[in-house]
User: Fold this.
Amino acid sequence: MRFRSFIVFARFCGAAGLGVFLGAAVAGLVNIATGTAFARGSDWLTGVPVLAVLGALAGLAVAWITRRWLAPRVPRRRPLFAAAGLATLPLAAAVAQGEPTTAVAFPIMAAVVVLIVTLWVRGFRRETAQARAMMYGYGRPASR
Assistant:
């Protein structure tokens, strides 16, 4: 199994993008908990159903695109990703509804990006170690 640098970079960017998206969802949840998402007659609440449908469709698309390398053995993968998109897209859109939370949103997003990218690097190293072991016979007893 060969790892092309473009594919590795695309996976790395995907992991970072997932981290930004999940960080935005957490920051949006903070924005909802503090009540700033509902201030000043915000249109966010009326847009939640549309955002939920778009999030579910985006979750299905991500499940299809990443079917070979992001949790390939998870049972009921498509409904799981659709439910995750259904919940996170409206939360991520709630970030833009408040001025004071931008000071909180960016550190939360950065922390989640670091966490997700670190987990991805660990998984990638494990994947490449398994591929090297299969290709070059690491860990096999020496033939006599």
About this structure: The radius of gyration is 19 Å. Helices lie at 5-34, 44-65, 77-93, 102-136. Residues 37 and 97 are 5 Å apart (CA to CA). The mean pLDDT is 82.
